[in-house]
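Students often ask why inverse folding is considered easier than folding. One informal answer: many sequences map to the same fold, so there is more than one right answer. In these notes we will look at a single instance of the problem. The structure comes first.
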């Protein structure tokens, strides 16, 4: 085993927690302003974000590089040369406003000014919360002494780089950082895994993938014959038709033992 490849979101950084708390804080601000239930607004906004995201003219491209609707709710899209990213640079503020405006309307609130305010508030609240798992730095520090490490993450270049920079010293552990929005393919496409191997001058048998997502990290690694570990921190039971990982772990601290 030569190189360990790590996923970023919900493997090294706790993106779900960051997004959930930021959404709670933003909806609470709306609740105080309009006297509406924050939880109902949160549910409405999550639904509206998904449906509005799928209506975007560049949805196919964003889905291909695995940008999520909630990431589009705070990304600046100010990095990258793809025409679709340039489009989103202009479209994103309107997209966010529409999501919040329609979410409010679901609760009978017609307030465009408030929708604009909430669309601007959520990115601020999200950027206040660069959460990281308690085992992340410890494990990366230990493994980097014995193995070259690589980061493979789906998303827009600006947002994934911002997430990395949000945790001091995190990017320094990796010899290569591969972002789907920079190469044009997202996990689970074999192309992005092959790109990683070409960067390091390795074959699949020299690499080991660690990630939390069965349908991107594990499916993609399986497709190239790369051994892998599914990080299942919550101990959830996978669907019966889900890709099967080489190993299943509950903590990053288990990775070293698997390699030995």
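Output (designed amino acids):
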């Amino acid at each position: 085993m030569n190189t360990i490849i790590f996923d970023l979101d919900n493997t090294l950084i706790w993106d779900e927690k960051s997004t959930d708390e930021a959404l709670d804080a933003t909806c609470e601000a709306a609740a105080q302003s309009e006297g509406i239930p924050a939880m109902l607004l949160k549910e409405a906004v999550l639904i509206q974000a998904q449906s509005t995201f799928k209506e975007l003219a560049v949805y196919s491209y964003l889905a291909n590089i695995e940008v999520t609707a909630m990431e589009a709710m705070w990304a600046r899209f100010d990095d990258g040369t793809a025409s679709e990213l340039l489009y989103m640079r202009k479209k994103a503020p309107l997209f966010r406003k529409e999501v919040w405006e329609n979410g409010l309307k679901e609760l009978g609130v017609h307030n465009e000014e408030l929708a604009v305010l909430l669309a601007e508030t959520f990115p601020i609240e999200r950027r206040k919360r660069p959460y990281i798992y308690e085992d992340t730095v410890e494990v990366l520090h230990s493994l980097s002494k014995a193995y070259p490490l690589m980061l493979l993450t789906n998303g827009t270049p600006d947002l994934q780089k911002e997430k990395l920079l949000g945790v001091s010293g995190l990017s320094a552990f990796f010899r290569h950082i591969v972002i789907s929005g920079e190469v044009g393919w997202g996990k689970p496409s074999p192309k992005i895994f092959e790109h990683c191997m070409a960067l390091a001058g390795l074959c699949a048998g020299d690499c080991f993938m660690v990630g939390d997502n069965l349908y991107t990290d594990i499916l993609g690694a399986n497709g190239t014959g790369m051994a892998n570990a599914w990080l299942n921190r919550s101990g959830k039971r996978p669907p019966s038709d889900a890709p099967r990982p080489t190993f299943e772990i509950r903590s990053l601290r288990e990775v070293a033992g698997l390699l030995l």
